[in-house]
Amino acid sequence: MKKAKQEPVGGFFMPSSFLAPLPQRMVLAQYSEAPQRAGVSSSSGNRKQEAVVSGVRGGKVEETTAKVDDGVSPVARGCRQFWRAGDYKDANGIIPAAHSSGVGLDHVRVHPKFLHSNATSHKWALGAFAELLDNAVDEIVHGATYVNVDVLNNREDGSKMLLVEDNGGGMTPDNIRQCMSLGYSVKSKSSNTIGQYGNGFKTSTMRLGADVVVFSRCPAADGKSQTRSIGLLSYTFLRSTKKEDTVVPMVDFEQTGQGWNRLIRSTSDDWNMNMRTILLWSPFVSEQDLIGQFDYLGNKGTRIIIYNLWEDDEGQLELDFEADQEDIQIRGANRDEKNIEMAKQYPNSKHFLTYRHSLRSYAAILYLKLPTKFRIMLRGSEVEHHDIVKDMIEPKTTTYRPQQLADGMSNNHEVSAVLSIGFVKDARHHIDVQGFNVYHKNRLIKPFWRVWNAAGSDGRGVIGVLEANFIEPAHDKQGFERTIALLRLEARLKDHQKQFWTSKCHEIGYSQRVKPKNTTPSSSKKANNNIISKSSPPSIQDGEILALAGSNQKSKMSGLKRSENGSSEEEDEEGRTIKNLSIALKDEEINCVSKGEGKFNLLQSLEEERVKSKKLESELEEKTKELKEVEKEAQTSLDDIVVLKQMIKEEKEWRDAIEQNLRESLKSAEQTIETLQERVRELEGGQVEDGSGSS
């Protein structure tokens, strides 16, 4: 019989049974071992616990009562501290032994402890929130206009629960199973989405709390009806019932006319068993209460409720809901009271000082850009998106183009990055605020990355922003993969910060690191003045000539007054004197005019030389820049060689270690073979002796 052609799902070919429900005996084989829930009283000895299970058929709710034998000893309450919750031992300190499932072929099994181990990738709780926000932002392409993060009260025991919901496209029954599956992602090949590893939902929810219940409402493929799905990922359930596989109870409903019917994927018994498990281990006491959560979603969307939140070493919740009624903050080492007070005094540095402990501050800078119609709501108040560039004093922009990458990409828009760098507006107060916000596909990966750890105050106040799509983020999106491209980027950012700081630190009150050089125009001006002063005739010469003429004229006039009847000889002598003086004055005037023309020609020549000098200076500056770029490229190449040498060295050491281990194993094997051969010879010799004796 010819097999039906398998269609790819999200670009991957999945096994035909990937989305098929597990057999009932695997799903809830130990359901009768369920312990007493918090807040439910019990009597001594064996007891029966009633779980109300109702089905919705034809718009009518049908309730049944299922008896669950809870006569076994309740399991002790699990550890509520995240970093210690991975101890998967029973009350006697024994790890449960693995048993064969007894179903078909052997298969790879995911132990519940892996949920905790996987979540430890998020060392920072706010990084887990970011993963859930990413999922909502990815839903913008499906019509999402908001994501709402809030705090709810568990009506059973009064504990706090986290709510994350959006009005995106929702998830179909198949999609929600893919969401709950480890490593499955339909976004990995999509260029306009953030998620790609298929691991974010599981790691983030398990990092914030021990249990999560998901509600999703999605329009059906025909566009006329809808589906509803509920899934429970409960570490408490898996530990308490000593499960050896990660079991995720799920139920689905489909719309028929004006009512909702159960969507049976295997059998009605399986559906009822899943519903009973969800009711027993979720914060909801009845199916009506459970189904009522869909009323918050409207026609489509996803609602996530995380409960049994983790506590710190002092028994307090790791998350702080009381410090700010419009924020969710974290306690512990990430919270610095000094920085909180400084943020009030220096508002332009607020996000640098508070993003480590404040979700509101972190979410404001989490995305480089957000659509104007999309809102992030936090505890009833909108998170105002913040552009770090607005905190800078006259930011400078430059384009960074990395060297040829291994995949052949060079200068397209995915590779080049626009860097904005400048002093933060509070830099004049000399506070230690510095670093680069590096984004990948619009998502902040490294907040305020400190690349220059200089001694003293050098580098303070310099911040920058760039989007680097040419390097890949790590799976927790709190850093980048350590590659040569990242090392080159780090070195270049360090150079930019050094150059910017060295050339401009005096503008914000620091002592100047580079002394200004004498400019050619000022020195040329001084030289011109010297030349002009030397070539120009002293102004006193003209005064002397006029004074001489005036004194002679006065003396002659006084002589005429003293002797009006003087002889004609004296008159002739006087006339000759005046004539000679006039000739001298005219000659001097001619000399001054000729000297003035020479001065004008000299100034014109000097101006031409000044223009030539500026041109030569500009050319020299360009050549100097080119030389510096060449030196940087050479240094970068040397750094790459050093890195490659180190990688080769580590690879060689690793291979040598493997070779040594293999040699030792081979030697041990040879010794074992010799021992066995000796033993065989001894046995053969014994058999020969026995045979001869019997004969």
UniProtKB/TrEMBL annotation:
Q: SUPFAM superfamilies attached here?
A: ATPase domain of HSP90 chaperone/DNA topoisomerase II/histidine kinase
GO-annotated molecular function: ATP binding; ATP hydrolysis activity; endonuclease activity; RNA binding
Identify which cofactors the protein needs according to its UniProt entry: Mn(2+)
Report the record's Gene Ontology biological process terms. Answer: chromatin organization; DNA repair; positive regulation of defense response; regulatory ncRNA-mediated gene silencing
**Low complexity bias spans:** 517-540
**Organism the protein comes from:** Linum trigynum
According to the UniProt entry, the coiled-coil residues are: 603-686
Q: Which UniProt keywords apply?
A: ATP-binding, Chromatin regulator, Coiled coil, DNA damage, DNA repair, Endonuclease, Hydrolase, Nuclease, Nucleotide-binding, Nucleus, RNA-binding, RNA-mediated gene silencing
User: Pfam families this protein is in?
Assistant: HATPase_c_3, Morc6_S5
Q: Does the keyword Nucleus apply?
A: yes
Q: Which family does it belong to?
A: Belongs to the MORC ATPase protein family.
Quote a single Gene Ontology cellular component term: nucleus
Domain named Morc S5: which ranges?
A: 357-501
- This protein is called Morc S5 domain-containing protein
Gene3D superfamilies per the UniProt record, alphabetical: Histidine kinase-like ATPase, C-terminal domain (3.30.565.10)
Sequence segments annotated as region (Disordered): 36-57, 512-576
